[in-house]
Design goal:
Length: 218
């Protein structure tokens, strides 16, 4: 009984092995890591001093002033460096004399990576430019609002000054009128009687020019 069980298990294993062996063997294709699957790092064959010089050149060019801008510029640096790396790897798939592709699978893979990293570079650049454009618009709007508020306050002050000047002129005119009335009453015989008659005709009190005071009943 036990021997039959072992024999059947061996037959099934042999059958499975035979079916697997009959399948066509796929050629092994060397691949590189996807663009965003790992953290960026330099290869031992790459120049770290050259990388830092390239990074500093982009930081100097774009003058990043905020953490977000620094992140975007760093992303541009890494994307551009990876695109160059992919291009170099692609070039190794070409015959140096004829330019003929010697490894189609690798050449196609490296070219896709080069295109992906180039697009990532331009996306980070566009994001940086858009960020700065929005900040400029916000600053312009703030300055415009500030100037509008200042103009409004200045208009209010100017209006108050104009009202004060008109009030002062009215006070001077009234003073001149009182002085002229006093002089006329002193120098012209019968002026006071004529003046009072004119006021009565117009329905005015003798002290019409003085401010009215309201007396509230207790």
């Amino acid at each position: 009984m036990r021997s039959r069980t072992i024999r059947r298990a061996a037959e099934r294993a042999a059958s499975k092995l035979a079916s697997t062996a009959s399948l066509p063997v796929q050629p092994e294709i060397p691949v590189v890591a996807p663009p965003s699957s790992t953290r960026f790092k330099l290869l031992t064959s790459e120049d770290p001093i050259g990388f830092e010089a390239f990074k500093q050149s982009l930081l100097d060019e774009h003058q990043a002033t905020t953490p977000t801008e620094v992140i975007l510029v760093n992303a541009m640096v890494e994307s551009s460096w990876l695109a160059r790396r992919a291009q170099r790897l692609h070039d190794t798939c070409l015959n140096p004399d004829t330019g003929e592709i010697t490894d189609t699978a690798k050449a196609s893979l490296y070219m896709r990576y080069c295109t992906t990293h180039t697009r990532a570079f331009h996306k980070s650049l566009n994001d940086l430019l858009k960020l700065r454009s929005e900040r400029r618009k916000a600053n312009i709007g703030f300055e415009a609002q500030k100037h509008q508020t200042e103009r409004h306050e200045m208009a209010k002050i100017t209006h108050q000054i104009e009202l004060f000047a008109k009030d002062m002129k009215a006070q001077r005119d009234l003073t001149d009128l009182v002085i002229a009335h006093a002089q006329a009453a002193r120098d012209i015989p019968g002026f006071e009687a004529k003046y009072m008659a004119e006021l009565e005709k117009r329905g005015l009190d003798k002290e019409w020019w003085q401010p009215q005071t309201t007396t509230q009943a207790a």
